[in-house]
Amino acid sequence: MSAPDPDTAGCPVGRGARLPYGGSDFARGARPAPLYGPAVADDPHGLYARLRERHGQVAPIELEPGVEAWLVLGYGELLELTRNEALFSKDSRHWRVPAEGRLAPDSRLLPMTAWRPTLLNLDGAEHQRLRAAVSDTLAQIDHHQLREATEAAANGLIDGWGPDGTADLIAQYARTLPLLVFTQLLGLPARTGPRLVGLISHFVDSGPESVRASAEFQTILVDLVRRCRTAPTADLTSWLLAHPAALTDEEAVHHLVVLMVAGNETSINWIGNTLRLLLTDRRFRTTLTGGRLTVSDALEEVLWRDPPTQNFPGRWATADTVLGGQYISAGDMLVLGLAAANADPAVHGGASAAQGSLGGNRAHLAWGAGEHVCPAQHPARIIVETAVETLLHRLPDLQLAVPGNDLTWRPSPWSRALTALPVLYSAFTPPRPPAPERSPWTPSSTATRPPAPPSRSGSTPSDATSTARTPDSGPQGPRSWWSSLAGWWSGR
């Protein structure tokens, strides 16, 4: 990027004239920073710091060649953005780029920005109607049974690993485990799991296959809704269809997309990033095994430093305005810079979020703010925390099989996700007979322990790495619960 004119830098709509995205910076030959490619994958924190230094708390970016937007980097600015839906709408039909014919029909951005009749894309009373349907549906999940189902799926995956003491915790664990649970939650047959993994990855990465994957993914869910409408069972899909909000089949399908993509993909990344922290950060691993910090603290650390969704589209300005000192035009798109806002020096007394421990501090914006905070907070926490704790109980001597600096990230502008996490371990447990199949959302007479009561503080101590869990070792000790996750889907 060339140096901006000191008189007009950071004034994208110009002074006294309506200019395209980027305003006077573009008019004088500068290009916005691309929010795609190697920079956003290899060193996103460096990218956000450079953008903040040059443009302030709101910076012009490019989402793909010829498609510009604003990246909100500031903590306070992101709060302002998410709390004012009258001025910054969730309805992408306000976006002037496609209205001006500047978004290609096969744009990789379409799956993440196209308008759908969901709580993500609506404001006001209609948003509240749909949000109530999703919230009430999720509230029917039995958390104890969800934890049991997640633990059973985790143990099954670990038991399936070979006897050589090697595994890839992304491909063989994090990427598979949440989907095993979500397919049961929604009432999908287990055999669709592997197919859905690939489709969702293409969908959220805005890659070459994203449009095709989006259509195929939706076809699977259309068939599911039709089946549950005709023959309802004890699953999220049937409960959603039965809600008094009276969702149409189309509305139900789109909300299942939201649940699967936001819930599943975020869980995958949260698990992977937490395991990476425990395996690469000597300070954190030492204090964890020493008993001073818990798995819950590790989850919080990740939400501050490497949240599973680092950027989220978006908001659309309904009128000309100013945000963070930048002139925003009606129809402009604003991207929520969740990771950047968490690292805002203004929030940390001038220091970076990377300095010192943030355990116990839940003021991060990893899950957004405002009226569109997602209602799936409790199930999300249970799945991720159970996945991490079960793995550490079973294989307490996990260690990286490669240097930490050799780990690579997926090239997604939205997700913060590792491509692989290869590990070595010695405490291999022989496979066990499979447990009898049953719905995890209905009462069971085979439960071996009562539900663990929620912790008011959300930080019940647990030495997650003290012993390896074997088929004969009995139930695990109590785990910490987190009852105040600010929301699942970023800034909704």
Please describe the topology of this protein:
Layout lengths: L22 H5 L5 E2 L3 H5 L1 H12 L2 E7 L2 E6 L2 H9 L4 E2 L6 H4 L10 H4 L10 H15 L4 H17 L6 E3 L1 H5 L2 H10 L6 H13 L4 H21 L5 H7 L6 H32 L1 H8 L5 H11 L5 E7 L3 E3 L2 E3 L4 E5 H5 L34 H18 L4 E2 L21 E3 L68
Parallel strand pairs: 1-2, 3-9
Antiparallel strand pairs: 2-3, 4-6, 5-11, 6-9, 7-8, 10-11
Helix pairs in contact: 8-10, 8-18, 10-14, 11-12, 12-14, 14-15, 14-16, 14-18
Summarize the structure.
The chain is an alpha+beta fold and 492 residues long. The chain has helices spanning 23-27, 38-42, 44-55, 75-83, 96-99, 110-113, 124-138, 143-159, 170-174, 177-186, 193-205, 210-230, 236-242, 249-280, 282-289, 295-305, 338-342, 377-394; strands at 33-34, 58-64, 67-72, 88-89, 166-168, 311-317, 321-323, 326-328, 333-337, 399-400, 422-424.
Would you mind describing this structure in some detail?
The model is unreliable at 1-29 and 442-492 (pLDDT under 50). The chain contains 18 helices and 11 strands. The chain is globular. By secondary structure, it is α+β, with helices and mostly antiparallel strands. Helix 8 packs parallel to helix 18 and helix 11 (193-205) crosses helix 12 (210-230).
